[in-house]
Amino acid sequence: MFDKWKYQRQAARAASQYYTHMQNKGYSDAGASYRKKALKGFTAQSGSPHEDIDWNNATLRQRGRILTMSSPVAKSAVVTNRTNVVGTGLRLKSRIDYKLLGMTPEQAAAWQNATDAEFALWAENKHACDATGVNDFYAMQQLALASWLASGDCFAVVQAEQPTLFSPYSLRLHIIEADRICTKYALHSGTPVMMRITDGKNPENGNAIYDGVEVSRSGAIVAYWICNQYPDELLPKPSEWTRVEAYGAETGLPNILHIMDSERPDQYRGVSYLAPVIEPLLQLRRYTESELMAAVIESFFTVWIQKEAPAAGMPFNEPIPQDEQISDDENEYEMGPGVVNVLQNGETINSTNPTRPNSGFDAFMKAITTQVGAALEVPADLLLKQFNSSYSASRAAMLEAWKAFKMRRTWFVSDFCQPAYALWLTEAVARGRIAAPGFFNDPRIRQAWLGADWIGPTQGQLDPLKEIQAEQMANENGYSTRAQSAMRLNGTQYEQNVEVLQRENAMLQAANVPAETSKGGTADAETN
User: Fold this and answer.
1) Sequence-ordered list of residues with C-beta below 8 angstroms from that of 177, at least 6 positions apart, any chain
2) pLDDT, tens digit (0-9, with 9 covering 90-100), for 461-475
3) Which of 20, 131, 149, 200 is the most buried (most CB within 10 A)?
4) How far is CA 246 from the centre of its chain?
5) What is the C-alpha to C-alpha distance for residues 224 and 213, in angstroms, rounded to an integer?
6) Helices 72-85 and 361-376, axial angle in degrees (round to 10)
7) CA 412 distance to own-chain centroid
């Protein structure tokens, strides 16, 4: 006779054994285990990029931004990147594919020099390149990079103004902060839909909108929604959104430049550079403030007098100037250098010994900053601007940091500098100010005319003698070119250096002064 209960017990026992066996197999016995004590409470859950990133971005932006205003380490992380990635601005050096264009090296050099000078006419005039008229193109780079790092992304809207006699180009760029690119929300029962849910839909075409970025059904970005105000303005205006198509329908040129780096597929908005280290940076700031306040209090010399007579009768002047006093309340007391406080009848003071300065403060700060720097790809030595290690250790830290700086410079050039240059050169050729045959006829020819290098800050030298000697050896053995060495050592252009040296040597020869030779020695002017 079939025993149903016995069968169920056997099946349950077999299932339990199988389950136990599976729990000890592969990652289920490692990082995916729910049985180990260390991992029982680790219930990580991840959603789509829109849920994990877009829904939290408003908070991350505000926290990242306030930390750059209040935390020295956070501020150092942002400005250190800004200083090394763009510095005073990435300068254009056009580098066309002259072979494809059928030009000689001399013709290419002449075209490049003329184009660089023409670009400077636009880039160095803040009224010619900035829609707000506040920054020139190089200061706009600094602004865009810092905003990108603090807020997660940054935008530059392409606008057109009427050319003038001294500003012959209509192209203008308007830098827009991340907060203003947002999804237009609908009203429901008189109350805005929860602002954290940033997903929406364009009612006219059914396209999805993720935190202000409109995406087609195939996943391509087709438009951006720009609000006329910030979400948390104290004096808000009626909210209005402008839909800006990502690319012009006729030209295919961008109408808006989006500066960001992606960390997940299907991600359309950037994440603050400081997002992974917000908590340690905040706690580090609080700890620093506490230690600073404790040290200040420890330095105070305060006298407390207990007397039965009324406190107002004490013959002491104000211990602290009126504008520095905290309160006039008789129940509040202040501490300060040389302060005399009078206690009321029956009151007494119990003091503690804060033992400041804390001997472990510096070591703890360095330990946390090292972890923060590792996450941000900026070594602690560079974050704190302290180079107390050996030459080899300091150089290794600089080399590691410069890998990240160069990577971000490549991203920034790709998202901002090169697209802006392409827009400008398109207008320059269309207006006839620059000759570029075939520019509008063949995309390959157009790309050949658009070739460019963007020269920025160099790594610098901890020991200039060793590093210059290394560059000389690399040049002599064919591992590097003189042009590359010039860019690495001081960010200059080798061709221009040679031209200047020729003029200087000619001047020295005319003055009968020995001129510098290519090997670093001197040669008598009369023998040359």
Assistant:
1) 147, 151, 154, 155, 230
2) 666 777 788 888 888
3) 149
4) 23
5) 5
6) 40
7) 10
